[in-house]
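Exercise 7 asks you to align residues with C-alpha cells for two separate proteins.
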Amino acid sequence: MLRTELDEMIERLTFEKDRLEKDEAVYSLTDCDAEMKFYGREVSRVIGVLRSALKDLRKLREDYDQQGQ
C-alpha cells in the first residue's frame, strides 16, 4: 500500500513540476508585468524543491523495491 502511495505522490509532483517548468519558460521569454516576472523568478525555487522531493521519493521507492525482492 505504501508503494502505491509513493507512486501516486511521484506522479502528482512530476505533473506539477512539469507544469511549473513550462510556466517558467513562458515567463522568462515574454515581456510581462512585474508581478508575473516575480512569479517567473520564484517558480524556479519551487521547481528545485520539487526536483529534490522527487529524487528522495524515487530513492525511497527503490529502497522498498529492493526490500521486496
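Second protein for Exercise 7:
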Amino acid sequence: MIKLRTEIDWIEIEITILGKTNLKAMRKAVAEATGVESAYAEVMGCDANSASVFRFRIHDPNKFAGVEVALMRLNQRFPFALPPTVTAVEIALDDYNKGPEQVADWYYGLSKLADDRNHRLYRDFKGSGEAIPRHRESFVRKIADGYQVGIGNKGADFYQHGYFKQTDHNKQALPEPEHRARIEVTLRGEQLPCVTLDDWANFKFEQLA
C-alpha cells in the first residue's frame, strides 16, 4: 500500500458571471455545485449584495474532472462572462507511515523557505503562537500535542504549513489508519505556476518538488 502521497488539498477559483448576484446566493450555488454544505466563497468587490466576480474553493478534488463538473454546474446557475481562473492552490504531502517526528524532519530538511525569519508553532486560536523549540524532542512533543508549524504569512503568495493530521477540513476526527504527517504549500499570485484550468489539468506536480 502506498503510504506517501501528494494531493491538492484545495483549489481556489475566480469566476466572473454575466449580470450580478449577492454573496448569499453564490454561496448556495457553490455548495450545490460542489456538494459541500458550508462551502467557502467570497465576493471580489465592495458590495456583497450586487457583484459579478467571486472566488470559491473546492476541497479535496480527487480528480480534475471533479473541478470541471463543479464549474459546469455553477455555469448553469450563473453563466460565466469569462473563463474561470485559478487564484490559489494548496498542495499537501502526506506520510501515512510516520507521525509527528516526520513533520519535524521535514521542517529541518526544507531547502526552500517561504520566509527566512517568520517561523512559529501555533494552535487554532489567536495568541497561541510561540517560537519553535531548539531541541528536536521538544519540537516533536509540541507537534504531537496538536501544535502546527507555520512558515511565512498565511495570506502571502508562498506559505508553508506542517502538522500531524488527525482531523479532516471540517474538524471531524479521522480513523486512526488515516492519521499522518502532513506538510502543505500554499501558492498565490506570482508563485502560481499557472492560472488557467487547462494548464492545471496538465501540470506536472513534480516540478514543485
